[in-house]
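Closing statement on the glyoxylic acid sub-project.
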Amino acid sequence: MSIVVSIPDVDKTNWWIEQLQALLPGWTIRPIHDPGDVEKVTYAVVWKPATGAFLPFPNLKAIVSLGAGIDHVLADAELPRQMPIIRTVGTDLTQRMREYVALHVLRHHRDIPAIAANQREKRWQQLVVPPATQRRVGVMGLGNLGGAAARTLAALGFETLGWARTKREIEGVITYAGDSEFSEFVSRCEILVCLLPLTVATTGILNAALFERLPKSASIINAGRGQHLVEADLLAALESGQLSHATLDVFDVEPLPAEHAFWPHPGVTITPHTASLIDAPTGSRIVAANIERFEREGSVPDLADAARGY
Ligand code: GLV
């Protein structure tokens, strides 16, 4: 009975192995590049695994994604067909995303970038912003993280809108569904938060057409995936003043290359994929519980649907 761990960062791999080993003492837990007896490996715990990473393990029962998204697993063209993929979600992760969304929505709402620029110039200027009740904020994607973020924004008093592929009911949130209601939703969002899963349908959804539909000088927050955003379209929308600011947690290429135009851009705030970063002490409890339950029951509530993409 053994588990392999695959994370691009070696220190993080060791950290996870240590934490998981303490919770699963009966298991052999090793890095994927040094797996021991491959026949004994039944689970792979992964973040951004390499292509073909799972092929050496004939008895794999499930792959555990170290995150809510499974796009980084599905990106493997040699992924064994029908392999169950377990997502890692839980209250700690939702809590972190709620904090991130509240922090950055409030920051845009209260125009902190302009206030910070004024401070650099020693300029005392009382910028007047409406109360949150008169600010429309939209959340795209109303799953685990998006639903929690929308509830948090509504509780802060924002006029909160939400959009998802299928209709969701969330108290205090005006919800829209599907392609037919997308345009109307977007046209109302002064601050737009993207928490969609990455699928074929959502790739490039944050593009010039969407930016044009947003109210003038709207801002966006992307804590979904880098591939949701067409980067050149964002730069053009910031340049024209159609968008005033973007807070980005995720990028097409991560880490964001040093020469990327986003780094020095005054209209862009960068966070390094930490919106809802899962740490080993917290996350290993969720992962261990999921592995134990999958062993007992052959399934877990957090099983992803690979055909759907999330
Ligand atoms: C992080 O990006 C996740 O998928 O949870």
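The chain has a mean pLDDT of 97. With this model delivered, the sub-project is considered complete and its resources will be redirected to Aim 3.
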